[in-house]
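To: structure subgroup
Subject: Chain for Friday's discussion

All,

I'm putting the inputs and outputs inline so they're searchable in the archive.
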Amino acid sequence: MTTYTGTKEFEGATFVKASFKGATLRFSDVSGVTMRSVDVGGLDIDSHDLFFGSLYVNGVDVVPLVDAELNRQFPGRELQKAQTPEGLREGWVAVQDAWRATVADTPRDLVDAHVEGEWSLAQTLRHLVLATDAWLRGGILSMQQPFHEIGQIFTGAAEMGFDMSIFREDTPTYDEILAVRGERQQLVTDFLATATPELLAEEREDPWGGGWQPTVGDCIRVILEEEWAHLRYIRRDLALLR
């Protein structure tokens, strides 16, 4: 099958009686796409940014419905938007309990297995180490080099000019990953234990160098969003791998 990468040739295009059956779109921009009189049986959409916009199906914005259903499936997920120290602490406990159950229930022969194009459990835990480093150690604590060497960075980071020499080239063992992950989880727990409304309201710099000036509370909410999103991804993939 033909692969189109980095192309804008389809922007504004119209497809009539065309077949996209079985096609895969990854890291692609489909915002503003209009589909009329289409067959969508088995259509599978997965977007972390879904909740920042709208998605209309037969005239109904389904984003609030999806959000509510995910909150039902993942108790405590709604607290990723909490504005108080108490709410954020409660949300952190909920997502860590959910992760603890997932890690404990995954047999060792599946920790490195993955669905095509997705991260394994081991890689996902390494990415969550990186997310904590970026938003707590970098964003909140303003450490000049916040990243642990086993962190798993997002696809395309090298092309964006990120210094990849920070990270190890060899693959860490699963036990090492669990140890570092545990240390980073404890860092968040300890930070939230003494967080106050005044601290959460303080402004910080975007650790990725964007134009956003998040508050300390925003940085914690990003960590929570990362935790819940990747928990959903890995549970989805482990269900398929089992």
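Points worth raising on Friday:
Strands lie at 56-57, 60-61.
The two ends are 28 Å apart (CA to CA).

D.
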